[in-house]
Amino acid sequence: MSQQQLQGFHTRKHQVVSSLVEFVDPERRDKSPKGFIDAPILDLMHVINQHPDYYTTSSCSGRVAVYCEGLEKDVDINDPDAIEKTTKGGTWLYVSHDPIPMPKENLEKWIVQLLFGDQSDKVEFGSDRPDGILGRQLIYFKFEPLILHIEASTSETAMQLLGTAYQVGYQNSGITPSRRHMLAIRSTHKIDTPIAYVQGDTIKCLVDPAYLILLLTMSNQKFESNMERMKVFEDAMAQMLTKAQQAQAWEPKEARRQRMKQEGLAKREQQQQQQKQEDLVVIEDLLESVML
Q: Where is this region: Disordered (predicted)?
């Protein structure tokens, strides 16, 4: 890597890290939708961003969510529920970045109010499954584990970090093709399943409340696994940081080369002086033997 490229990396790192917001601040937001970093991932991000060869460009500690697809327009004037869907303009009906404690009573009513929020009074349960349901505006239950996007200083340091991610269980991680050395750190512990569809002013549930409770229970278990793996990754990154700090404490490469060169010359001179002394002893011995 050229000196200019390395300088560019450090400039970007300073700009990004200095703009991070670690808590709710009405006067300051970062570029994330929330405007600040998820609390569960703060310690891990601190370790990564202290490392001289890495910094985080975006992050999510993990979340459970209910998402309603966006739509653009009706595509069949004879069927007002047939719509053209889009990945843009969707609605997050519910989002949590922490495990959800579950009450012991009235679970079915509670789960509907929790997941559908102010739309919960529109929810209907039934066995109807209309034809062409994939053309409807679907609502998904999601659990998404940790995801981190990280820039590395070089391709070598990117590969080192990727190897560490694999070792701790982030098997779905990879290096993004780019002029910069970008990594996505993620696992496969996710849930992404349709649970309802929109029909006019009604939300038609495809599953019963018991299944929604099951999904939330599974998500809480995945939250626990997600946090455990995050801690293992944090410990692994801390070890990498310690090694990097120790390496930085060493003398610069050029200084070390010059020191070793001087030490080598001094050793050679010492050996030469020792050899001269030995040669003088031999000559003196020869002279003594001749005189005898």
A: 247-277
Listed in order, strand segments (DSSP E) in 32-145 are 54-60, 63-74, 83-96, 123-125, 137-144
DSSP letter string over 125-168? E-----TTGGGSEEEEEEEE--EEEEEESSHHHHHHHHHHHHHH
Q: Are 135 and 83 in contact (CB under 8 A)?
A: yes
pLDDT bucket at 26, cuts 50 / 70 / 90: very low
Residues 271 and 173 in one domain: no
How many other C-beta atoms lie within 10 A of the C-beta of residue 271?
10
Count structural domains, the chain.
2
- Residues 163-210: tens digit of each pLDDT: 999 999 999 999 988 889 999 999 888 999 999 999 989 999 999 999
> Which residues have CB under 8 Å from 235's CB, separation 6+?
none
Say if strands 202-205 and 123-125 run parallel, antiparallel, or are unpaired: parallel
Residues 243 and 258 occupy one common structural domain: no
- 168's tokens: 């701790």
What is the Cα–Cα distance from 53 to 158, expressed in whole angstroms?
9
> Where in the sequence is the domain holding 281, given as residue range(s)?
252-292
Instruction: Decide if 45 contacts 37 (C-beta within 8 A).
Output: yes
